[in-house]
Design brief:
It is a single chain. The chain is built from 11 helices and 9 strands. The protein has 299 residues and is α/β, with parallel strands linked by helices. A 4-stranded parallel beta sheet has the order 1-9-8-7. Strands 4-5-6 form a 3-stranded parallel beta sheet, with helices on one face. The protein has a two-stranded parallel ribbon with strand order 2-3. The two termini are 30 Å apart.
Length: 299
């Protein structure tokens, strides 16, 4: 993921901002709702991107990936709607506790930009995506950088149309959604009233997307490492914030690790998992091919 890439990450202040004042209030509604579910994964499973992750001779990348991680941020569905048998194969190859978090097709978000022609596309997308059954996690819709608040009516119509049985997260990138307090509040309240997660993007060149405003009991976080030594301490800061949110009532943590150049995404994910387990009281599997390197990192 090259979004938000900068030439000199050492010059960026990666401090996680203070929470939006309404986040604690939102989380307090869920405090008595049971245990917190934690999913951590990468954005892709193909061998070309996840270098040195797969053991020699691995024939089925998804089968191996899903034996090491409990989820995937499924970016492939952004570029095309796959035939039904593809989703059925994905379902069959993965363990029963595995989750897919697929990205909405760009025909909806970028080409048609939520206009009145997107709804048949949404229906077609959901018809095949539903074949993932209980392994389907939250679907996320990422809008184009230039999709601004002038399109507010389109957002409202889309949210009203969206079938509520499918969990949804939305990612807005245009600065106008957050720079104007009135616009931001209207957006947050629309998402909150419709139980839609507000995606947080942690990337070097767009710190404004760290608005720290949760709109339901889901933290959907897209973390982009800068291929820099700061990538690891940034994860430490996230663990501290997630522990705070858990104590306030957060019930769903969905954390997806990218890098500008996908060299260490599995290792960064494993580092996060190893530290999250004691901090949040969870017991996520630590991927095998990362253990030796993690030993070096932890001294």
């Amino acid at each position: 993921m090259k979004f938000g890439k900068v030439e000199h990450p050492e010059l960026i202040d990666f401090t996680i901002p203070e929470d939006h004042p309404d986040t604690a209030a939102v989380l307090s509604k869920y405090k008595e709702d049971g245990d917190t579910q934690v999913y951590v994964g990468c954005a892709k499973w193909n061998r070309q991107d996840l270098k040195n992750f797969y053991p020699w001779g691995t024939k089925d990348e998804l089968a191996y990936y899903s034996s090491q991680f409990n989820c995937i941020e499924l970016n492939a569905t952004f570029y095309r709607i796959f035939p039904p048998d593809t989703y059925e194969k994905w379902y069959e190859k993965t363990p029963e506790d595995f989750k897919f978090f697929p990205k909405m097709t760009n025909e909806v978000s970028h080409l048609r930009r939520l206009n009145e022609q997107v709804y048949p596309v949404v229906d077609r997308y959901l018809e095949v995506t539903a074949l993932l059954k209980e392994k389907l996690g939250t679907i996320f819709l990422q809008m184009h950088n230039n999709f601004g608040p002038k399109n507010w009516d389109r957002v409202v119509r889309f949210v009203e149309y969206w079938p509520k049985e499918f969990p949804l997260a939305m990612e807005f990138r245009h600065t106008g959604w957050f720079n104007d307090e009135k616009v931001a509040q209207e957006l947050y309240h629309l998402l909150e009233e419709n139980n839609i997660a507000n995606v947080l993007v942690d990337t070097a060149g767009r710190r404004d997307l760290m608005h720290m405003r949760l709109t339901n009991n889901e933290a959907f976080i897209r973390y982009v490492g800068a291929n820099h030594q700061s990538d690891y301490p940034r994860l430490d800061d996230w663990i501290e914030r997630l522990a705070t949110w858990k104590s306030q009532g957060l019930k769903n943590i969905h954390f997806f690790v990218h890098q500008n150049m996908e060299l260490e995404s599995p290792l960064l994910s494993a580092y996060l998992i190893k530290r999250l387990n004691p901090a949040l009281g969870c017991d996520l599997h630590i991927p095998k091919n990362t253990l030796d390197t993690l030993g070096d990192l932890f001294g």
